[in-house]
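Memo to structure team: turn this sequence into structure tokens by end of day. - J.P.
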Amino acid sequence: YAACLAADVQISNTECRRDVNGDLMDTHDGNIIQYEDGGLYWYYSMGYWTASSSTGSCLLESARGSTSHSGIADLELDHALRVYTSPNLKDWTLVSEDALDQQTRPYGIYFRPKVVFNAASEQYVLWINHLPKAFSPLRAYHKTGYAVATSSSPQGPFTVIKEKASLSQNAPGDADIFVDENGVDAYIAYNGWDNNHTLSIEKLNADWTDSLGPDFNSGPITDHKQEAPAMFQRNGWYYMLHGHTCCFCKHGSNAWVQVAKDPLGPWTDMKLDLNPEKKGLFQSDHVIKGQNSMIIRFKNAAEETGYIFVSDLWSSADDKLKSHDKQFWQVLEFDDSVEPPTIKPFEWRDTCDLVGMPETADLSASELQLSTV
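Reply from structure team:
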């Protein structure tokens, strides 16, 4: 099975994602990673089952509450860690409907999973937001943390080894886990409820299961009230995209650009918003009515590296189910004539077009035998 053929791939931004069996993909706020060149892309995401997207506001939903669900933006206690694979970022096969066992994981609400592979420990490491049990939903946010789980297999199951990672900032919110191209160093970009949602970056320990602490923290990088970080590395530069706090916002959020030569800084604000607001008479929407989810690093058949911006289009589902909310994908376009290279702001496109993608990935026998769990 050799990656010797190339084909153009078109991914819709106007339709719900469907897998190779035609089933809707309940996939949101996770990450997509290719562990080896020519291999499968692995999609780790949160499945929201039947949670609704009725308001697009955490505070509105948390104010109403109920005994049947968590009361936080209709988030439930049964969120599933979905795992899919694809050879080309378009044709997805469900590998696990829930790779984080609900019977053994700590009680609470889970969202925004990130999975990476640590070559030294030979473990796949999951970091995921965890809201523990509290007197009220809003109080749960001030007790939140990141649960850390590991697996010897990319499809899981993942076993929680640390219910709450030790970080220098308390009550953390959105995060991204970034692995340096050297394959040794990994970092977490995150904010905190107790620091008014100010983003910073912290280096992880050798097995990537905890932080090295405040001595390895970048210090504040952004203004207050910023979340949804997405990090990547390109041609010697480190980038981080982020937007204002908007919690499942239906009108979208910014994609401000920070850049540095080292993950711990110093970071430079490029004063560039890739997803600016469009001012309206009664309402202001962003160019893309979505919130930053991830950056996908990919290679085409010609071994050219590209980066795809992914945004969750909250409250976009026709049936009002959060599980069916759509996504926006766009390949980042760089201007390498300046230092640091800048990125072209987003524009709405009905499709994300990938040129010259491998038609057949270089799959191992074990990968070919993967089946739905």
